[in-house]
User: What shape does this take?
Amino acid sequence: MKFTLGQIAAILHAKLEGNPETEISDLSKIQEGHAGSLSFLANPKYLPYIYTTQASAVIVQEDFEPQEALQTALLRVKDPYAAFTFLLQKVAELQRRPKSGIEKHAFIADSAQVAASAYVGAFSYIAEGAVIGEGAQIHPQVYIGEGAHIGAGSVIFPHSTIYHQTVVGANCIIHAGACIGSDGFGFAPQADGSFQKIPQLGRVVLEDEVEIGANSCIDRATLGDTLVKKGVKLDNLVQIAHNVEIGSNSVIAAQSGIAGSTTLEENCMLGGQVGVVGHLTLAKGSKIDAQSGVNKSIKEPGQAFRGSPIQLFRDQLRSEMVFRKLADMYQQMDRLEKRLEELESPSI
Amino acid sequence: MKFTLGQIAAILHAKLEGNPETEISDLSKIQEGHAGSLSFLANPKYLPYIYTTQASAVIVQEDFEPQEALQTALLRVKDPYAAFTFLLQKVAELQRRPKSGIEKHAFIADSAQVAASAYVGAFSYIAEGAVIGEGAQIHPQVYIGEGAHIGAGSVIFPHSTIYHQTVVGANCIIHAGACIGSDGFGFAPQADGSFQKIPQLGRVVLEDEVEIGANSCIDRATLGDTLVKKGVKLDNLVQIAHNVEIGSNSVIAAQSGIAGSTTLEENCMLGGQVGVVGHLTLAKGSKIDAQSGVNKSIKEPGQAFRGSPIQLFRDQLRSEMVFRKLADMYQQMDRLEKRLEELESPSI
Amino acid sequence: MKFTLGQIAAILHAKLEGNPETEISDLSKIQEGHAGSLSFLANPKYLPYIYTTQASAVIVQEDFEPQEALQTALLRVKDPYAAFTFLLQKVAELQRRPKSGIEKHAFIADSAQVAASAYVGAFSYIAEGAVIGEGAQIHPQVYIGEGAHIGAGSVIFPHSTIYHQTVVGANCIIHAGACIGSDGFGFAPQADGSFQKIPQLGRVVLEDEVEIGANSCIDRATLGDTLVKKGVKLDNLVQIAHNVEIGSNSVIAAQSGIAGSTTLEENCMLGGQVGVVGHLTLAKGSKIDAQSGVNKSIKEPGQAFRGSPIQLFRDQLRSEMVFRKLADMYQQMDRLEKRLEELESPSI
Assistant: This one.
């Protein structure tokens, strides 16, 4: 990209202090600014950098008052972070060049349907009965199983495995190596100590605008559907077991796992490395801190939890604070007991 | 599938209450029953659904006594869950259509041997000296390294990597993206702070009827074998380090990890996100609760543990219960000390 | 391989006690020794095996004094473990047969550059503008995105995804299924509860001699670089978020995760299943025990931590020790209170 500051000011409806002819060819963090880059200042923590940054211009709050001399141009807006994110999106759009057509060396089964505007990369395998929607981008080396549906505009990165019958909605993003529709982990214990596999005959359904991180796994239901609702975002290496339901606009950070048949209502947020036991329900807007272990259903919406097993966030912090003093407390108790003994035994 | 209730009753040796001509085309959970579906009632928690289910028939205990009017037919058997699982397996068998032959675009090295009844999918790579047994199903986009052996009837899903020399027994299932035989994590610290790789020259051996979940990893041994014995079931995203040995019929839930040279004896069960330190032995039948950290060997068989680090299950629960009251306990101790001080100081 | 003991003694500058014509064809652990194998004794724990091992020879400390009769030859050296590791490396070198050339069925885009001495396996995809250095080994079924650079001598195992613009240094090893350069997990919350994706325009840069475990994930930076410095070793299933920086010669065990914008200085060591919160700095040489949760920056170098949240290693051990006695402590406090009450109430 290459724009003048004047053009960018117009796009952002920003008040420019600087030369409108200055050319901007890059976006950068303020501490990594360089000639030709545009940055932003939103977090006060980064304030000192504005006096030293090499960025050609910085987006700031409309009422920003510098305390020292500046070497950079300013673009004053109401919300610098939102303005910068908007520019990021514009740049991403310019960089995005959706492909169409079927690359040499792709395998398309006879009964599969690939929309004319979709792209299927080399070494991808589209099995019998699979359907690829308009504009979908199936990168190279992807597997789309029998009867799977990929919605319009969805992007599937390399080495993802979309098992048979899986449904992916519109405008989803599935990162590399994700497995959608692998068998649920169900086995019936036998008298001789061995385990018999319980066939997993259900599906996985992802609604629209779902994003799945790299190498994450979502198991198909035993019967019925494992369901990931609209707008859900999963980070990398997340595990979603069979028959789980994840409410719309829920966000789950990396390496968390949800055991079978649990339901998250909408707008839940899980930190990284969280575990949730099976057959629970988490009320909408539940917030679970990183590394927590959820072992009971949450009924009241919008509460924050922490710990393994979880307590209310504040209660857990209080317990943790005392945990750090436990050894002292143990000795204090011993001293108290000794003092008590002295009082109990008559001194003469 | 399409069967009449009469046919199904005969298969299950069930007592039918309803029209033997009713057609069944689907299995469902009782709460998701619909016309043409057959469901089951095993867990009393789901009892209310039997009076409202839309399922055409429900498998129930032979002595089930309805308390209200039923709209569904009944199939009475001794063990409804076992009967339903049996039907699931029958349906799965009907759906399973093992393929044979080598698909166009597969790569088979000159010295590799592929049994005539095996299937190798497109874009799969069978390296020099590899052996694929009778009836094995190598799905598309699988990698089978040099000299690896895949036993008869085993199924390998897309994007799995079976490194060189790995041995996979008969009737194993390896889900998508699993890595079997990657290098163990061994490095010798050098004087300058860097690390020198210790070559990993051993193998991974999976015995028969092992199932490995999606994106799980099993590292090859430094020397000798990393060994996964008969009937072991691993869930998704599990990590098994070099020189580990997992006893037969052990079951490990998602995102658990076993560090190097540890041995699990037979019939161990690990919940999700468990970690086990290296060079330990866990006695047969050990049960480890989710998110636990095992930092010592377990000698007595058949015991249950929990916590990080682990305690006996009951002891850990008792500690956790008090942990929740720690802040109160801390204040109580302070109050006790003040009362003690008052007693100690003469009132006059 | 096949060497005589005399040859091996010469290579190791070892003092041989045994027949120099004995042929050695294998390396083994001492407890798994067999005719023709060479083993070593470094850890005193394994001392008893030297009297029973079937190995044809064992490398021992130069001053080793057997207490019983030996059936095996001895090779006396200063550091048996180092000598054995040296032999492992020699064997690994002999086994390593780097390939060169482009295998049939590989996809090389028109503007990609592949060095003449590099190898690209079947079904690998080298996108536009990608550069593959001298001697690099791109195994089958690898994806190298647009403009990515793979340094000389690096080895990329099957099913790895190297996203666009990623830089991999020289002599790196990337195990199967690793994803380098997937999008950072960044979303801006919207008024309606949904999340808007923040485009991830940065890169991932791996310096030289980095090793990445199977199915590990490293996210690209939002802007700038996610940076993994020289000599870093990551185990399997590790998650590195966007804009993280990992100092040289740091080592991270399996299933650990580092959240966004955190910096590890050089020579840090993280155990398995560790979590580190975002925007922190860990001083050089920090050691974090398995399953710990790091929720604050570490300023003093070279210290060991443990727990979730972390304490200094020793402090955490002390707290854990009391945690195991918490239930007893709770009852003790109750008893103290009762005794105090008795003292407080005048006996007459």
Remarks:
- The two ends of chain B are 93 Å apart (CA to CA).
- Residues 3-95 of chain B form a domain with the Udp-n-acetylmuramoylalanyl-d-glutamate--2,6- Diaminopimelate Ligase; Chain: A, domain 1 fold (CATH 3.40.1390.10).
- DSSP finds four helices and 40 strands in chain B.
- Chain B has a mean pLDDT of 95.
